[in-house]
């Protein structure tokens, strides 16, 4: 009787110890290093979700690369939606601070991206809720950099940071 | 005499032998000492690194999901928060979307994501904000767009806030300040805005 009680107590102690070590480490890892997410919607076709609603891509989101808010033009990034803070959107970075972009559907024809902001667009123009709707977004909303597609297996690939040539900024910020 | 001579010769030889043997033994002794020291040091280093990672992760979880202590600098929230005051911020309201008008929040600066700003929430999404100063004849209003908040410092003369850079997205808010810890003369919950209410709900 005493032996089985001792076993239970030891197990509970070991469980608590493991719990308080494993959970914070896992949560910190998923928040700061990398996590995985499913992409929904058609705003990034054909790069992501080319099959539409039949199969959603699962991408690897890399938080570590954006810990200093360093992004390049052409990166696919996930950010907190400026219109709905409960939602995250995934778009491509078209222009950085100081660039002048020629917009498609924005109320101003040309927009200079203010300091600390970026201009993001989905690859599927016309079906994308992006900076053409809500303007430049603050870098503070940046969540992660999508680097690889992990699922489905036939779509395993590294996501390249390419800018579509027709979307090059009109004027870049001088280095 | 010959016996004495032999002894005289053998003594240095034995002494040399003794020293040689001791050197060999002491060499091995040093080697084993080094090995255990190294293993001990390596073990201790790994344990230290492990503890640092573990406590770092707990600190991250605590600040990200519960709250933490923050030091504020700058004159934009006087007299409610003075320069170099230490306050307590909680992050639960942000996660449960419970930020309300009149709360003092910490947010990431819209023009510099690495620095934080500390202001009061004057308006939530959909509110109509009076942006003209009371001395203007023509009153101008701004509506706060969806997903954004309007922030203003309590020290209206000396604060760059939403009157300068516009409403900021809710996603930039990091936490809500509700308690002042230092200076002890001002210990306690924070006061309401000294500027009265400058918004009207429609």
Automatic annotation (TrEMBL), chain A:
Membrane topology: Single-pass membrane protein
Presence of keyword Transmembrane: yes
Annotated transmembrane regions: none
Keyword Mitochondrion: yes
Catalytic residues as annotated in Swiss-Prot or TrEMBL: 43, 91
InterPro entries: IMP2, LexA/Signal_pep-like_sf, Pept_S26A_signal_pept_1, Pept_S26A_signal_pept_1_CS, Peptidase_S26
Primary site of residence: mitochondrion
EC annotation from Swiss-Prot or TrEMBL: 3.4.21.-
Keywords for this protein: Hydrolase, Membrane, Mitochondrion, Mitochondrion inner membrane, Protease, Transmembrane, Transmembrane helix
Entry-linked SUPFAM superfamilies: LexA/Signal peptidase (SSF51306)
Gene Ontology terms, MF aspect: serine-type endopeptidase activity
Entry's localization field: Mitochondrion inner membrane
Stretches assigned to the Peptidase S26 domain: 15-104
Listed GO CC annotations: mitochondrial inner membrane peptidase complex
GO terms (BP aspect): protein processing involved in protein targeting to mitochondrion; signal peptide processing
CDD domains xrefs: S26_SPase_I
One Pfam family here: Peptidase_S26
Function: Catalyzes the removal of transit peptides required for the targeting of proteins from the mitochondrial matrix, across the inner membrane, into the inter-membrane space. Known to process the nuclear encoded protein DIABLO.
Database matches in NCBIfam families: sigpep_I_bact (TIGR02227)
Subunit structure: Heterodimer of 2 subunits, IMMPL1 and IMMPL2.
Family the entry assigns: Belongs to the peptidase S26 family. IMP2 subfamily.
PANTHER family with a match to the protein in the record: MITOCHONDRIAL INNER MEMBRANE PROTEASE SUBUNIT 2 (PTHR46041)
Protein name, per record: Mitochondrial inner membrane protease subunit
Species for this entry: Canis lupus familiaris (Dog)
Automatic annotation (TrEMBL), chain B:
Keywords of the record: Hydrolase, Membrane, Mitochondrion, Mitochondrion inner membrane, Protease
Predominant cellular place of this UniProt entry's protein: mitochondrion
Enzyme kind, highest EC tier: hydrolase
EC number: 3.4.21.-
Protease among keywords: yes
GO annotations of cellular component type: mitochondrial inner membrane peptidase complex
Localization: Mitochondrion inner membrane
Superkingdom of source: Eukaryota
GO molecular function annotations of the record: serine-type endopeptidase activity
Segments forming domain Peptidase S26: 53-129, 138-182
Biological processes annotated in GO: protein processing involved in protein targeting to mitochondrion; signal peptide processing
KW Membrane (keyword) present: yes
Alphabetized CDD domains for the sequence: S26_SPase_I
Active site: 76, 119
InterPro entries from the UniProt entry: LexA/Signal_pep-like_sf, Mito_IMP1_subunit, Pept_S26A_signal_pept_1, Peptidase_S26
Pfam family name, one: Peptidase_S26
Family statement drawn from the similarity comment of this UniProt entry: Belongs to the peptidase S26 family. IMP1 subfamily.
Oligomer and partners: Heterodimer of 2 subunits, IMMPL1 and IMMPL2.
General function of this protein: Catalyzes the removal of transit peptides required for the targeting of proteins from the mitochondrial matrix, across the inner membrane, into the inter-membrane space. Known to process the nuclear encoded protein DIABLO.
Protein's recorded name: Mitochondrial inner membrane protease subunit
Organism: Canis lupus dingo (dingo)
Recorded name of the encoding gene: IMMP1L
């Amino acid at each position: 009787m005493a032996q089985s009680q001792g076993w239970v107590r030891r197990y509970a102690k070991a469980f608590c110890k493991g719990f308080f070590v494993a959970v914070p480490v896992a949560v910190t890892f998923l928040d700061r290093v990398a996590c995985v997410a499913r992409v929904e919607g058609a705003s990034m076709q054909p790069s992501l979700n080319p099959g539409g609603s039949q199969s959603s891509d699962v991408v690897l989101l890399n938080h570590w690369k954006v810990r200093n808010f360093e992004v390049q033009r052409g990166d696919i990034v996930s950010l907190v939606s400026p219109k709905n803070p409960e939602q995250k959107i995934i778009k491509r970075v078209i222009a950085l601070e100081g660039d002048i972009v020629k917009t498609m559907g924005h109320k101003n024809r040309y927009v200079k991206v203010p300091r600390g902001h970026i201009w993001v667009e989905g690859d599927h123009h016309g079906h994308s809720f992006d900076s053409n709707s809500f303007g430049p977004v603050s870098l503070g909303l940046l969540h992660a950099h999508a680097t690889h597609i992990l699922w489905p297996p036939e779509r395993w690939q590294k996501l390249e940071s390419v800018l579509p040539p027709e979307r090059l900024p009109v004027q870049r910020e001088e280095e | 005499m010959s016996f004495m001579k032999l002894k005289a010769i053998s003594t240095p030889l034995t002494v040399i032998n003794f020293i040689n043997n001791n050197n060999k033994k002491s060499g091995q002794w040093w080697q084993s000492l080094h090995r255990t020291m190294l293993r001990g040091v390596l073990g201790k280093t790994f344990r230290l690194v492990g503890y640092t990672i573990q406590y770092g992760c707990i600190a991250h979880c605590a600040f990200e999901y519960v709250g933490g202590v923050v030091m504020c600098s700058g004159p934009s929230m006087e007299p409610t928060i003075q320069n170099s005051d230490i306050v307590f911020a909680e992050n639960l309201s942000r996660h449960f979307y419970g930020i309300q008008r009149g709360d003092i929040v910490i947010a990431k600066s819209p023009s510099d994501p690495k620095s934080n700003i500390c202001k009061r929430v004057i308006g939530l999404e959909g509110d109509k904000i009076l942006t003209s100063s009371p001395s203007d004849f023509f009153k101008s209003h701004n509506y706060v767009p969806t997903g954004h908040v309007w922030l203003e410092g309590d020290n209206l003369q000396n604060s760059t806030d939403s009157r300068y850079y516009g409403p900021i997205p809710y996603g930039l808010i990091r936490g809500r300040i509700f308690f002042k810890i230092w200076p002890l003369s001002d210990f306690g919950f924070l006061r309401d805005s000294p500027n009265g209410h400058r918004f009207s709900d429609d």
